């Protein structure tokens, strides 16, 4: 039998082979499902376009990181970094995908270098979704409301609206901001912002996680400000809220105008 001369048949066969071998994301999706992966220049884009997730390289660095940045700001501005201590060099063979119920980043040698690290969940329905708030969430199914993990619980150097800076009084564990090492290296830097573990209801900046560098003063419930941050009295942009009980304390904020693009950062300068 002679080989077919039908170009459309050949094209159909090539497309079938390509789709069989490549279960990767299309550009603009906001979800990674169990049979998909993200690599190279592919990105997730939140439903309203506010945030983008993908591989990025800061400044002139030759290292690549999985991060989230603003989608409507011309200059790429990272607000969260997954593998801040373990960069990759080859993004063409590195990939972010669902594995054993976790979102996992594999380097070019297919070694897992970052994971959401939740208890083993082998459900094939687990999905990762980038929300329009900038929160990357892991759910047991696209229609599930129960969160398995969320990036807002693991901030890096940026505090987004809706996020919490908290202190678990039972475990003495903090959700804190930690600066980058420098403008081209998102690894843990010298400065951190956290709730004072001594229970003073104030925020402190620590140098090298040991020496106090700055304090906000205690929270004044009546004035709704921290005592040593009088500028908060002039606020007309942010709706701040402080909560404390026997189990935890946390500070959070929202925007009166949700169209405003805003962030708080712990800068590497301190």
Automatic annotation (TrEMBL):
Q: Which InterPro entries match?
A: Bulb-type_lectin_dom, Bulb-type_lectin_dom_sf, S_locus_glycoprot_dom
Write out the entry's keywords from A to Z.
Answer: Disulfide bond, Glycoprotein, Signal
From the UniProt record, list the coiled-coil ranges: none
In this protein, which residues make up the domain named Bulb-type lectin?
Answer: 29-151
Q: Which GO terms describe its biological process?
A: recognition of pollen
Cleaved signal peptide residues: 1-28
- Cross-referenced Pfam families: B_lectin (PF01453), S_locus_glycop (PF00954)
The domain of life is: Eukaryota
The membrane-spanning stretches of this chain are none
- What is the name listed in the Swiss-Prot or TrEMBL entry for this protein? Bulb-type lectin domain-containing protein
Source organism per UniProt: Hibiscus trionum
